[in-house]
Amino acid sequence: MTQSLRDRRSSVVMQVPRRRQVSLNIELSPLIDCVFLLLIFFMLSSTLLAPAIDLKLPEAGSSGAVVAPEIVVTITRQQRCLLNGSEVSLQSLRERLGPLLSRSKRKVVTYRGDAGSTHGTFVRVLDAARAAGADHVDVAHDLEEGDGLGRR
Fold first, then answer.
1. Which of 5, 22, 30, 31 has the fewest CB atoms within 10 Å, measured from its CB?
2. What are the structural domain ranges in the chain?
3. What does CATH list as the number for 71-140?
4. pLDDT truncated to tens, each residue of the chain (152 aa)?
């Protein structure tokens, strides 16, 4: 009987399952692959986009700003015409604008009309400026008080 008891003891072996160690490492290679793929995608898609606005930017030869002399036509409330501060008649405006525009690089005339001046006077100044060789006529105005959108 001792032999059988001894056989039984040797045959019964308790097997305890071992704990598996959980790996806490984060694999970075798939993450890096995704980041590089996104980077390549955005680089390629940004070069294929057409520019929304066609701009021709000015080139500067020096750092200082050179301001061209302005040609300003002012119409007063009494319908008097002033060219750069000196009074001229509307009939002689074209002849007086011609030499000023020929000397100017920018062929721009700035119109400053009083709020009480007539539309017809503005049209006559515009016609005289175009006939004298102006490429563009700016209309100067004062800003109203408010939010900048014309509302008070």
1. 22
2. 71-140
3. 3.30.420
4. 555 655 555 566 667 777 777 777 888 899 999 999 999 998 888 776 666 555 555 565 655 554 555 888 888 878 888 888 888 888 888 888 888 888 888 888 888 888 778 888 888 988 988 988 888 888 877 655 554 555 44
